Amino acid sequence: MQEIKQTEGQLQGIRGQFVLVVGRFNSFVVESLVSGAVDTLRRHGVAAEQIEIVRAPGAWELPLAVKKVLQTRQPAAVIVLGAVIRGGTPHFEYVAGECNSALGRLMMEFETPIANGVLTVNSIEQAIERSGTKMGNKGVEAADAALEMVNLLNTLGN
């Protein structure tokens, strides 16, 4: 039987700028995501001068900040970090849903990887679990996805 060709991205030897667009709201959780993402990038050979952090007020504002970054910086990838925690009103659904939809549209429009590390959780406990305790660190996962996608797109383009 003939072997099937497979193409996938790697996590090493990545060039280009990485911009973290970070929502300040719920910073007690988000700063752990930022630390995890930056540490992951650095451990995979991304130099400090290849990393920029852009801060926006919250998750609602993240897509506009990402769009401006894509227009002005031309990064290899954008890593978006934030936290939307469900409250007692439907506000959660609107903010989380619109943020996620807009990020997906921007990724397709600009053909640039956008790693979505915006937590959308039901409780503060879930947010804490996903920012570095028993459920891992979603900032680390977003950085890994960004690195792999940059390499994959470079591989597919050659």
UniProtKB/TrEMBL annotation:
<comment type="pathway">
    <text>Cofactor biosynthesis; riboflavin biosynthesis; riboflavin from 2-hydroxy-3-oxobutyl phosphate and 5-amino-6-(D-ribitylamino)uracil: step 1/2.</text>
</comment>
<feature type="binding site">
    <location>
        <begin position="59"/>
        <end position="61"/>
    </location>
    <ligand>
        <name>5-amino-6-(D-ribitylamino)uracil</name>
    </ligand>
</feature>
<comment type="similarity">
    <text>Belongs to the DMRL synthase family.</text>
</comment>
<protein>
    <recommendedName>
        <fullName>6,7-dimethyl-8-ribityllumazine synthase</fullName>
        <ecNumber>2.5.1.78</ecNumber>
    </recommendedName>
</protein>
<feature type="binding site">
    <location>
        <position position="130"/>
    </location>
    <ligand>
        <name>(2S)-2-hydroxy-3-oxobutyl phosphate</name>
    </ligand>
</feature>
<dbReference type="InterPro" id="IPR002180">
    <property type="entry name" value="LS/RS"/>
</dbReference>
<keyword id="KW-0686">Riboflavin biosynthesis</keyword>
<feature type="binding site">
    <location>
        <begin position="88"/>
        <end position="89"/>
    </location>
    <ligand>
        <name>(2S)-2-hydroxy-3-oxobutyl phosphate</name>
    </ligand>
</feature>
<keyword id="KW-0808">Transferase</keyword>
<dbReference type="GO" id="GO:0009231">
    <property type="term" value="P:riboflavin biosynthetic process"/>
</dbReference>
<dbReference type="GO" id="GO:0005829">
    <property type="term" value="C:cytosol"/>
</dbReference>
<comment type="function">
    <text>Catalyzes the formation of 6,7-dimethyl-8-ribityllumazine by condensation of 5-amino-6-(D-ribitylamino)uracil with 3,4-dihydroxy-2-butanone 4-phosphate. This is the penultimate step in the biosynthesis of riboflavin.</text>
</comment>
<feature type="binding site">
    <location>
        <begin position="83"/>
        <end position="85"/>
    </location>
    <ligand>
        <name>5-amino-6-(D-ribitylamino)uracil</name>
    </ligand>
</feature>
<feature type="binding site">
    <location>
        <position position="25"/>
    </location>
    <ligand>
        <name>5-amino-6-(D-ribitylamino)uracil</name>
    </ligand>
</feature>
<feature type="binding site">
    <location>
        <position position="116"/>
    </location>
    <ligand>
        <name>5-amino-6-(D-ribitylamino)uracil</name>
    </ligand>
</feature>
<dbReference type="InterPro" id="IPR036467">
    <property type="entry name" value="LS/RS_sf"/>
</dbReference>
<comment type="subunit">
    <text>Forms an icosahedral capsid composed of 60 subunits, arranged as a dodecamer of pentamers.</text>
</comment>
<dbReference type="GO" id="GO:0000906">
    <property type="term" value="F:6,7-dimethyl-8-ribityllumazine synthase activity"/>
</dbReference>
<dbReference type="InterPro" id="IPR034964">
    <property type="entry name" value="LS"/>
</dbReference>
<dbReference type="GO" id="GO:0009349">
    <property type="term" value="C:riboflavin synthase complex"/>
</dbReference>
<dbReference type="Pfam" id="PF00885">
    <property type="entry name" value="DMRL_synthase"/>
</dbReference>
<feature type="active site" description="Proton donor">
    <location>
        <position position="91"/>
    </location>
</feature>
